[in-house]
Design brief:
Shape: flat
Strand content: under 5%
Helix content: over 70%
Radius of gyration: 43 Å
Number of strands: 0
Distance between the termini: 20 Å
Length: 417
């Protein structure tokens, strides 16, 4: 009979295997990065050596090599000039953006000033009308008091009533004018706030555009001052970095690498497993070209191995996170089982999940050999790509966790309700 504790133990055991795989993968990644950086350093040294050899006596170079270099120089000049033209176009576009924002700002400032003058004039006109009305109202108040005093009230009753009606209309006009003045002030306040908000955005856009324009101008200035050197470097990279040698597979009797002990063909300049230099540096043109071609191959291969290692490390860490989260859910169920004195669950790891989880052992065992660097970086990358494409697919990982989740949910519902 299964139980939650056994289920939790299975998760812990799978986590341990993944942690072992992760640890070994990280060791391998560190070694690959170290050798990759070493290859990069030696490659740069060989490049400098070849640059000096190719630049020292162009007339003494093989005709086909000279023609190839000239083609690359033309291509690099065209690419360089196109890049600078693109930067100039971007610079000009940013400057136009900034000028447009500046023009918008000036136009908006003129408009807000015009509105301010119009608002002041309208308010002054309304204030003058208010003053006139107040004078009329005061005059009617005097007349009403005079006609309403003593016995004159009875004689002037109907006239007073008419005066009150006129005064009432004047009072209403006064209130309307006061409301219109207040409305003008509110609208002006809103217009000012909108102007300030828009102005801040315009200034921000202007600053960003000018900063981007300045950055592109700085780059244009640098590129223009270093055009010859950059074109020369680019042409040499085109010439040298595309070369790849035809390396034979080693035989067990071939010389062993002094660092990793793996055999390499006698003609090899660098170890195919760890890229250790296997002989003295050749300073001549033919030797340097051959060494550069081999370094390019190793550079590419170790790059593939590093990328594959990074990919599988990310996948392993994702699986670990999934198992840890799943384990917390099981821990919660164990806690509730103990707290509420619930009955035991007859729960088992589904066969499909157990079968899939066995791949974690395969991965951990595979990395054991790789971590010792007896596996070629490209072969390692190919095996990793096969695993990711065939075993560690999104659907397979999802099915692995879903099957276990459904097992726990079904048994808990059946036993605990």
């Amino acid at each position: 009979m299964g139980c939650l504790k056994n289920f939790r133990a299975y998760l812990d055991e799978r986590l341990a295997r993944l942690a072992e795989a992760e640890s070994r993968l990280c060791e391998l990644q560190e070694k690959l990065e170290t050798y990759y950086q070493e290859i990069e350093r030696v490659r740069e040294q060989e490049f400098g050596q070849l640059a000096a050899l190719l630049g020292a006596d162009r007339g003494g170079l093989p005709v086909d090599l000279t023609a190839e270099l000239d083609r690359h120089l033309d291509a690099e000049r065209q690419a360089f000039d196109a890049k600078v033209a693109e930067l100039r176009s971007e610079h000009d576009a940013r400057v136009r953006d900034a000028e447009e924002e500046r023009a918008k700002s000036l136009a908006a400032e003129r408009e807000i000033r015009r509105k301010n003058r119009d608002q002041d004039a309208a308010e002054e006109e309304l204030k003058a009308r208010v003053e006139d009305l107040l004078g009329e109202i005061d005059a009617y108040n005097v007349r009403i008091r005079q006609m309403s005093s003593g016995f004159g009230f009875l004689a002037n009753f109907f006239k007073v009533r008419r005066l009150y009606k006129v005064k009432k209309r004047l009072d209403q006009q006064h209130r309307d004018l006061a409301a219109r003045i207040e409305d003008l002030r509110v609208k002006w306040k809103l217009a000012e706030e909108e102007f300030e908000h828009d102005e801040q955005q315009r200034k921000s856009h202007w600053r960003e555009s000018m900063a981007e324009a300045a950055a592109r101008q700085t780059k244009i200035d640098y590129l223009s001052s270093a055009r010859s050197r950059i074109v020369q470097r680019g042409a040499l990279e085109r010439l040298l970095y595309v070369r790849r040698p035809e390396l034979a597979e080693p035989a067990s009797s071939d010389p062993a690498c002094p660092r990793c002990g793996q055999p390499n063909p006698a003609a090899s300049h660098f170890c195919r497993i760890c890229a250790e230099r296997l002989g003295e540096d050749r300073p001549d043109l033919d030797g340097s070209l051959a060494e550069m071609a081999e370094l390019n191959l190793h550079f590419e291969r170790f790059g593939q191995g590093m990328r594959a290692c990074q990919e599988i490390i990310g996948l392993v860490r994702g699986l670990k996170t999934g198992l840890e989260s799943f384990g917390k859910s099981v821990d919660d169920m164990l806690h509730n089982q103990s707290r509420y004195n619930l009955g035991p669950l007859d729960v088992h790891v589904p066969d499909s999940s157990a079968s899939y989880g066995a791949h974690f052992d395969e991965l951990a065992d595979m990395v054991v050999d790789s971590a010792g660097l007896s596996l070629h970086p490209v072969h390692f990358a190919e095996r990793i790509q096969a695993l990711v494409g065939e075993v560690y697919t999104e659907d397979s990982i999802k099915a692995y966790f879903e099957a276990m989740g459904e097992e726990l949910s079904a048994k808990a519902e059946a036993s605990w309700g």
